[in-house]
Amino acid sequence: MEILTYKKFGNGKKNIIFLHELMGDSSNYEACINYFDKEIFSCFMVDLRGYGNSKSILGKYNLEESISDIINLASFLQLKKYILVAHSMSTMIAQHIASKDVRVNKLILITPISYLGLKSTTKAKENLLLQMKKNSGKIEEIVEQSSQRYNNSWKKYRINLAYNCSLLEARVSYMNMYLNINFNLNNDNKLKIDIPIKIITGKYDFPVFSKSEVSKCFEIFNDVEIIECQEAGHYPMIECPIFFASKIEFWSI
């Protein structure tokens, strides 16, 4: 059994597992991690297969594998209870984990997507996957569109990280994961999550991640709280690290 790599911060009794997005890795949380109380929390910042320090752990890079990897990691760490924090792409994975692992006692989702992936047309999905497979230009376009308020140093940092933090096969496969699960919030197989779900969106994020759109995707769950970070786009943990850590702490204590 492969165990994903992780970085641990703190030695507290409250355990938090952090999952990253498509175009970053666990280093996305480095800007905020020092603002967590290390005597209260034990924070585990995880790299998914094909990402960061888990680049050498090869696999299928799909939903079922990712769910199993995180549940196995929690068992390896001997966690009796844990809070699961996930960002963007991995929020889909996290919702499925929460429906299966009774040890998850709270779900905190950052700029999330539905557990059924992203809604889009077949043509748009195929075009996006094709451009990502070419590994040239699409990442720059996404960063440029999401970084209108920021300088070129930020844009270069995000572009370099997106290309270098993961294997191309992993990026494309995880994108395929959330683009090609049948998106239908009216189906009869709604995911059952009986724990509190806390959500942070960013005021300057893409429209699909806006508070209003996210609210529609999560209205099927009973215990949901959504707040909008007023000074962030898609990366509240980097753009507003003190706010981010403070909110996570408040929700976790």
TrEMBL record:
Record domain Serine aminopeptidase S33: where: 13-237
Keyword Lyase listed: no
This protein's UniProt keywords: Hydrolase
Protein name, per record: Alpha/beta hydrolase
Gene Ontology molecular function: hydrolase activity
UniProt keyword Plastid, yes or no: no
Top-rank taxon, per record: Bacteria
Coiled coil region boundaries: none
Residues annotated as transmembrane: none
